[in-house]
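New to this. Comment on this protein:
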Amino acid sequence: MPYVFIGPGVAAGVKVPSMTSTIDLGPTFTALLGTQAPQWTDGRSLVPFLARGSDEDWRTGVISESLSQARPGDPDYETLKPPRFTALRTEQWVYVEYEDGTKELYDRATDPDELDNVLPTADPELVKSLNRQLVALRACAGPTCRVADALPN
């Protein structure tokens, strides 16, 4: 998702090529205001990117989740009820685990639209590695997320 930052300490024309998430907005805004985000915050400040254009010590993956807002009894319940899932997005891979146990894997390098589930033919060690990182990200909080989001994949 694109963001635009303008202000003191923000270099002109900087693009952040790394994995970011909405969880990074809180720590970024607090850093831009000259204070520190609480220790329990899962996200990371984007200020190193905004000031210098890079940060060597950054995450290798980011978690995303889908939790349906539809409620039984709503008129559109059946059509608005997407399956619940948790996914790990890395530079190359999107690994998805659904609540019903279904899993998917997409290679963003060859399939940027994520249409071809390659899990059935994927290297089992790769799948284990992605699963380990997803499990760690699901369980992390605050500073432990810095370890979980930087696991090799």
